[in-house]
Amino acid sequence: MTSCLLYRPSDRNFRPRFYRVEIAMNLFEEVSVLREWGVSGSKGTSKIDIFGNLRHASEAADKARRSAIRRGYLRADTS
Question: Torsion angle of alpha carbons 78, 36, 18, 39, nearest 10°?
Fold first, then answer.
């Protein structure tokens, strides 16, 4: 399982937000890309996409991550 956590800090118009992309194998030998997003401290929204192989799943996850960064999200420091 690989996960990427992004956040968008608050400003005067928006509350802080999060965006998470995760790649994981499921029970049916497929690769799932889970995306979760929302306002920090809330349940948020999630979506799961299923792919037949890791390469296609990785490309989709990277596309989602790049899109979130273009919208102003920053990479969370998990150290």
Answer: -140
CA separation for the pair 18, 44 (Å, rounded): 9
Q: Which helix (H) or strand (E) holds 63?
A: helix 54-70
Place of tokens 């790049």: 66
Mean pLDDT by 10 residues, the chain (79 residues): 85 85 92 94 92 95 94 78
- Rounded Cα distance, 9 and 17, in Å: 7
Tell me, letter by letter, the H, E, C secondary structure of 42-58: CCCEEEEEEECCHHHHH
Strand order in the sheet with 74-75: 45-51, 31-39, 17-25, 2-8, 74-75
Radius of gyration of the chain (CA): 13
